[in-house]
């Protein structure tokens, strides 16, 4: 492996530390106060500068992410609120959504609250507030490479309703600043079931500054909101308390990639260029939603690969774009985040 600018074998590293967790590894802990009491998190350190926290208590999503000790993600004012505090009605999701690097939206509803097929649906669905089961957090060696893997399952079920299971694996490798997310959703029921999913990646200060560049590879852009220009989606701004959020829809023209570049990222010994690159498979995630909100206090850029838009399930059904999974059918999703 390459670490600290040199090539090392496993035994060469082991000879220099008491245990490998001195350099990199996995650590589990729980919150002990406030609305985070009882919320489990799993810290992953790659040894090359990337640290992130996976939250089994909340969708096996990713909370805070840091690069060389400096945050790259946005945290909501709610903190990592316990899912027992979640109110599924209307826009109650906003009171307990954690922010963080990743919030998964779905599995049967994404976007605006409303009614569909006689069912009341809240904003962005339930999966971000679902507790994972069969959670495993394992570091393992293969020759001279060490992989860190977190896996688990989440279920969204209802008597006389849908029955979907999300199997998730999040992985990184010692010495590399990458996160791989491999998901599989299966319809465990015996009726076809609506399936909506959106990967709500949230980037924040200080990765985002007035000089930050945002590049979208091979996309055609349109603004969601009525009467607003499509211009400005590549720009970032200083915090503005009066800024109104904007949502852009990107139609993919090729294999998707989004780059967020800061040429003056504040490392502890000075500043230098940092680039966050998000890639995913457009086969199953053919949509890209961009949420731009450089407001004061809510200073966040959302990059959101999805299989749907964000008007809610009722609108997707009306437009004929709603995705269904047949009984026993599975669909796989693959995403990669790279820090350089």
What is the tally of beta strands? 25
State the order of secondary-structure elements, H for helix, E for strand: EEHEEEEEEEEEEEEEEEEEEEEEHEE
How much beta, percentage-wise? over 45%
Largest sheet: 8 strands, antiparallel
Average pLDDT confidence is: 95
Distance between the termini: 17 Å
Going by helix content, strand content and strand pairing, the class is mainly beta
In which range does the helix fraction lie? Answer: under 10%
Task: Tell me briefly what this model is.
By secondary structure, this protein is mostly beta strands. Helix content is 4%, strand content 48%.
Overview of this protein structure:
The chain is about 5% helix and about 50% strand. The protein is mainly beta. A hairpin with a 2-residue loop joins strand 1 (about 1-5) and strand 2.
Write the layout of secondary structure elements.
Elements: E1 2-3, E2 6-7, H1 10-14, E3 25-30, E4 40-45, E5 50-55, E6 61-67, E7 70-71, E8 102-107, E9 114-116, E10 119-121, E11 133-142, E12 145-157, E13 163-173, E14 178-187, E15 193-194, E16 196-203, E17 213-216, E18 219-223, E19 246-252, E20 257-267, E21 270-280, E22 287-294, E23 299-306, H2 313-319, E24 324-325, E25 330-339
Antiparallel strand pairs: 1-2, 3-4, 4-5, 5-6, 6-7, 8-16, 9-10, 11-12, 12-13, 13-14, 14-25, 15-24, 16-23, 17-20, 18-19, 19-22, 20-21, 21-25, 22-23
